[in-house]
Design brief:
Number of strands: 10
CATH architecture of the largest domain: Orthogonal Bundle
Main location: mitochondrion
Protein name: Protein kinase domain-containing protein
Number of helices: 16
CATH superfamily of the largest domain: Transferase(Phosphotransferase) domain 1
Subcellular location: Mitochondrion outer membrane
Mean pLDDT: 80
CATH topology of the largest domain: Transferase(Phosphotransferase), domain 1
Strand content: 5-15%
Order of helices and strands: EEEEHHEEHHEEHHHHEEHHHHHHHH
InterPro entries: Kinase-like_dom_sf, MAS20, Prot_kinase_dom, Ser/Thr_Kinases-Pseudokinases, Tom20_dom_sf
Pfam family, one: Pkinase
Structural class: alpha+beta
Distance between the termini: 54 Å
Radius of gyration: 24 Å
Low-confidence stretches: 177-184, 300-326
CATH class of the largest domain: Mainly Alpha
Helix content: 40-55%
Length: 415
């Protein structure tokens, strides 16, 4: 029996035909109360024996309580489970994302002319960053995704990325019948140690998808986002993909309409798919690197017409908006930056890079420096050509108290 908090009653199918599906489940459109929901029916359940169904129910029992309490802006919420839709079948109930997966969304936007030129690169690094943030959160919660690829990244109504289907591969693998083919997620995104544990000094019966293999899949997902193609599209035979991956072969560097992807992105991708799992970064490190890349990629676009930025200290309204916390004496770098006069585009670009670096340094010291960090980040915000856009980037990089101070100052200035 499932925990009462996870059971959803009254879920109804609105379309009998499936709306999509993947390696582990078919997706149907349903309705719960007055809202659309996605109904995921595991393939494992459709033709499983009673014993496999019992084992799967036990796995769902353990996982559903954990999923129910997850909360992150780049992770799709888990609404609950239902046994009403299909007879003797447990289904996962999720919010319905009308934009679908990013695998379908990107080419649709390109066809409509919404991702042309440099807009494509900016959008992809944004979604890649958001995916890494979502994966880092799952890992912090001790959850392994196990089946990461573009088909499991959905786009919400605000056009942001949401991870889904985390843990489904793990449950399916744990409950696969003895002797069945191993399924650690979509094959082309799998890390080499999952193909040949013995080659990496690992026992065959102990290898499961883990944080390191998730990061490997994240890198391959990045390739998919940039190219619009599955990894190794030139190889049709899955066995040949396995052999090449075990030998250390990795995808080629993607080339965009305006040239190859940046060195920063390429170096990061190569890090994620290091041959040995211990040499790969954490998902949180990938998210941090991508956040820095997003910031640096925007500095070249600072407006030629950005007005001179007055000193924060001379703005009474902004100063009143700052939450009063005890602050130590200003650092030399803080004083220099706050006294900097920004007259030319070159001044603004130099200031912006220094301000972001110093703000991050102040945040790392201790909370007493949050006030100074916020003032620097706010001045950088005013120097930026598109403050609302930079505020969105700040969401993923600033500590919550600092972010709130920056928002307070900006709102006070713009009211």
């Amino acid at each position: 029996m499932f925990p009462a908090a996870t059971i959803i009653k009254g879920v109804k199918l609105t379309e009998k035909e499936k709306m999509g599906g993947g390696g582990y489940a078919n997706v149907y459109l349903g309705r719960e109360s007055y809202k659309h929901v996605a109904i995921k029916r595991l393939h494992l359940y459709e033709k499983a024996s009673d014993e496999i169904k019992r084992q799967t129910r036990q796995s769902f029992y353990r996982e559903s309580m954990l999923w129910k309490h997850l909360s992150h802006k780049h992770v799709l919420p888990f609404l609950g489970v239902s046994e009403d839709v299909f007879p003797r079948t447990v289904c996962i109930i999720l919010p319905w994302m009308s934009h679908g997966s990013i695998r379908d969304y990107i080419p649709r936007c390109q066809k409509e002319g919404r991702l042309s030129g440099s807009a494509f690169g900016r959008a992809v690094v944004k979604w890649f960053h958001q995916t890494a943030q979502g994966l880092a959160y799952l890992h912090e919660q001790k959850i392994i995704h196990g089946d990461l690829h573009a088909g499991n990244i959905l786009i919400d109504t605000d056009h942001n990325a949401r991870l889904t289907d985390f843990g489904v591969a793990i449950i399916a693998e744990a409950n696969a019948s003895e002797g069945s083919e191993s399924i650690y997620g979509a094959l082309r995104w799998q890390a080499p140690e999952l193909f040949d544990p013995e080659e990496f000094g690992l026992p065959d019966d102990s290898v499961r998808s883990g944080a390191a293999s998730d990061v490997y899949a994240l890198g391959l997902t990045g390739i998919e986002l940039y190219t619009g193609k599955i990894p190794f599209p030139e190889i049709s035979d899955p066995i040949m993909v396995q052999r090449r991956v075990i030998k250390g072969v990795r995808p080629n560097r993607p080339v965009l309409p305006d040239g190859p992807i940046s060195d920063d992105i390429w170096d990061l991708l190569c890090w994620t798919w290091a041959h040995n799992a211990s040499d790969r970064p954490l998902a949180s490190q990938v998210a941090t690197e991508l956040g820095d890349i997003r910031l640096s990629s925007h500095t070249a676009g600072l407006s030629l017409h950005t007005p001179q930025v007055p000193e924060i200290a001379s703005e009474p309204a902004a100063a009143e908006a700052i939450e009063r916390i005890r602050s130590p004496s200003p650092t030399a770098a803080f004083t220099e930056l706050m006294n900097t006069t920004l007259q030319s585009p070159a001044d603004r670009q130099r200031f912006f890079l220094k301000a972001i670096k110093e703000g991050e340094n102040l945040m790392k010291l201790n909370p007493a420096y949050f006030n100074q960090a916020a003032q620097i980040f706010h001045k950088a915000l005013l120097a930026y050509h598109n403050p609302p856009e930079l505020l969105m980037i700040y969401e993923g990089m600033l500590q919550p108290p600092v972010l709130q101070l920056v928002k307070n100052m900006y709102q006070a200035r713009t009211q």
